[in-house]
Every structure is written in structure tokens, then in C-alpha cells.
Specification:
Blueprint: E1 23-25, E2 28-30, E3 35-36, E4 41-42, E5 48-49, E6 54-55, E7 60-61, E8 66-67, E9 72-75, E10 85-86, E11 91-92, E12 97-99, E13 103-104, E14 109-110, E15 115-116, E16 120-122, E17 127-128, E18 133-134, E19 138-140, E20 145-146, E21 151-152, E22 157-158, E23 163-164, E24 169-170, E25 186-187, E26 192-193, E27 198-199, E28 204-205, E29 210-211, E30 216-217, E31 225-228, E32 233-237, H1 263-273
Parallel strand pairs: 2-5, 3-6, 4-7, 5-8, 6-9, 7-10, 8-11, 9-12, 10-13, 12-15, 13-16, 14-17, 15-18, 16-19, 17-20, 18-21, 19-22, 20-23, 21-24, 22-25, 23-26, 24-27, 25-28, 26-29, 27-30, 29-31
Antiparallel strand pairs: 1-2, 31-32
Length: 275
């Protein structure tokens, strides 16, 4: 096995201490039942690692990050030495598995039982819902919100401020099963993918567009367009959709939904779209 077998050098101590009273190691709060490689690089400011979590060598964990119990952080990939980088102020909830070789900006948030394979490059503020599966080799922008039970295939490219709702599938194999002919989905900035939609390989979903629930998208979606159906077809411009309470247009959604976004971003949206 790897350096995790070097138990005398681990921070795994006697059993029994609760997570709210962890052992302190150079400013880190690491539960005695966690196994942390001595080759992991952990920022000295306020990191917490829960019981029965395994952190492999080569992992870099930013300040203020909390990793719950029963997680695997930096699972080795054959033939790779690339580190797993988790930005500061992140939260990885229990039973999640992150392979080595991915990079996440500050403010990563996950639900439970999340799987993230190697070579994901993600920006700031990514949220990954419970039971979601990122198959690696993907690019993800800033403040992307991935809900529960989402599958993101390899070679996907996702822009900034994208919403991906539950049970969405981004595919990549035009002639399954094939080898070496993968074509990832591209989702541009501010796009919204409704629940249970499937996007077929190589499709580009345009900026600020909306894919309706249960749609099967086999062709590119123009910017600022709603598509719906199986197969999905254009149903008109997004700005024709009105909020059900009668308060105004539903899209662009940045006009009326601001929760969880930085003040600087919201201020720009207000200048651009009004409050």
C-alpha cells in the first residue's frame, strides 16, 4: 500500500475522543480516529478532520476547511503524482471520496456520499449535492451549483454561475460503449439545467439558456433560449417567462436571485439588470 501504512507517523491515536473535542496538531483539529499522511500539506489555520477519514500524501488542504467523518481524500490514481488541492473554507461532508489530481478553489461545499474522480479543475464556490458523481477530466467555473444525484461525465466544460438540478446527466460517449472517442458537454455561463434532463455528447448549452425538466438535449441550445421535450426543441426566449407571483420576468435569474453569492457579484448584477 502507500504511506498510509506508516501508522507510527500518523495522527491516528487511541480511540474514543469525540469530534467536538479533537486532538490539536499545530493548529489543526484532527480526530484521533482519522488517518492523515505525514506528507499531506494542511494549512495551520482552523482545519478540522473528522473520525475515520483518510487523507493521503500529496493532498493540500486550505485554511478553515472542515472534512466530516468517513471520507477518503486524495485517493491514489495509478501512474499519477498530481496533488489534490482543496481551497480554503471548504466543507466536505461525510462518506465522500475525492481522488488525487483535482483542484478546487475556495468555498467548496459538498453533500454526503459525493464521488469526485481525478483531473477536475474547479473555481471558487462550487457546490456538489449528495450522491453526485463527477467522473473527472472536467473543467468547472466559479459558483456552480450542482444538486443531488447529478452525473457529470468526463470532458465536460461548465462555465460560471451554472445551475444543475437533481438527476441531471451530462454524457460523453456518442457510440457507447466506445474507447477514445469521448465528446464532452459544454454548459455556458448562467445556464440552468432542469431536473432529470439528459444532455447528449458534444452538445453546447448556451449562456443564460434554460433546459426544462425531463428534456433530452441532442442539439446545441442557443443563448437566452428555453428548450423542452424529448427530443428537446426551442420554446422561445427566456425573457418571455414570467414569475408565477406576477412580480416580473423569471430570466435572467440574476435579476431576482442573489442568495449565497458575493456582494461584489450581486452589486454588478443589480447594475446590469436592476434590483
Amino acid at each position: 500500500m502507500d504511506d498510509l501504512d506508516a501508522t507510527p507517523e500518523m495522527h491516528a491515536l487511541e480511540h474514543g475522543a469525540p469530534f467536538d473535542s479533537p486532538e490539536e496538531f499545530d493548529g489543526h483539529a484532527i480526530h484521533p480516529d482519522a488517518r492523515v499522511s505525514p506528507d499531506a500539506q494542511i494549512d495551520e489555520r482552523g482545519v478540522k478532520i473528522g473520525p475515520f477519514t483518510v487523507v493521503y500524501g500529496g493532498v493540500r488542504i486550505g485554511a478553515g476547511t472542515v472534512i466530516d467523518s468517513h471520507c477518503v481524500i486524495g485517493r491514489p490514481v495509478a501512474g499519477s503524482r498530481d496533488p489534490l488541492v482543496v481551497g480554503e473554507d471548504s466543507l466536505i461532508r461525510s462518506h465522500s471520496v475525492f481522488y488525487q489530481g483535482s483542484t478546487f478553489g475556495p468555498g467548496l461545499r459538498t453533500g454526503h456520499n459525493v464521488t469526485v474522480r481525478e483531473r477536475v479543475s474547479a473555481g471558487e464556490g462550487l457546490q456538489i449535492g449528495t450522491l453526485s458523481d463527477l467522473q473527472g477530466h472536467a473543467e468547472i467555473g466559479d459558483y456552480v451549483r450542482v444538486h443531488s444525484n447529478v452525473h457529470i461525465g468526463q470532458k465536460s466544460k461548465i462555465g460560471d454561475f451554472v445551475w444543475i438540478f437533481p438527476y441531471v446527466v451530462l454524457t460523453n460517449d456518442p457510440h457507447p460503449p466506445s474507447e477514445g472517442h469521448l465528446s464532452g458537454v459544454v454548459v455556458e455561463d448562467y445556464a440552468v439545467l432542469g431536473t432529470m434532463t439528459t444532455i447528449l455528447p458534444g452538445v453546447r448549452v448556451g449562456t443564460r439558456s434554460v433546459v426544462a425538466a425531463h428534456a433530452l438535449v441532442s442539439r446545441d441550445v442557443d443563448p437566452d433560449t428555453i428548450v423542452a421535450g424529448v427530443p428537446a426543441k426551442p420554446r422561445g426566449p427566456t425573457f418571455d417567462v414570467q414569475l408565477r407571483d406576477g412580480s416580473g420576468p423569471a430570466y435572467p435569474w440574476m435579476r431576482h436571485f442573489h442568495r449565497g453569492y458575493p456582494a461584489s457579484v450581486v452589486d454588478e448584477w443589480k447594475r446590469q439588470y436592476g434590483s
